[in-house]
Design a protein that fits this description.
39% of the residues lie in helices and 43% in strands. The protein has 150 residues and is of the alpha+beta class. The chain has a single domain, classed as Nuclear Transport Factor 2, Chain: A (Roll), CATH 3.10.450. Strands 1, 2, 3, 4, 5, 6, 7 and 8 form an eight-stranded mixed β-sheet that branches. α1 runs antiparallel to α2. The protein is globular and about 45 Å long.
Amino acid sequence: MKILTSFMIVLTGIVFGNVFAKDVTNADLLKLFKSRIEVFSKCDTVELRNICTKDYQCINSAGLKMNLEEIKQYIVDQKKQIRAYEILTFQPFAAQDESMAFVVPEIEEEIVQDKTIIKNSLIVTEIYRKVNKIWKIQLTQISEKICNYP
């Protein structure tokens, strides 16, 4: 009976430990995803460096591929600002050892461009990697689901 009780305690700890780890991972990745959107919106190149890997790449909806230095210059030069966004779907998928993960969320955003509000519906693929036990963004690929220009 003692062995069975001990086994059940250990098994319960493993099951709840895995559930808790996944919840933390999901929350961490959602926070990181939102941080990247905010970084782009605020043109915060310092925070961009903090949340991305050194080999970070971004592919925008026009197919332009940029590394970390190029994306920093791009967000500084951009004339569009994200006014608001809503994350419609967000489901992360992490490797068993939680060394890598990815998400394919759908978002809607409002961008101000030349005093005009543009609404976009986007599908974003983002890949994350753990660097020194901290999640970082390695790749962002943005696709337009629906894009309305005036």
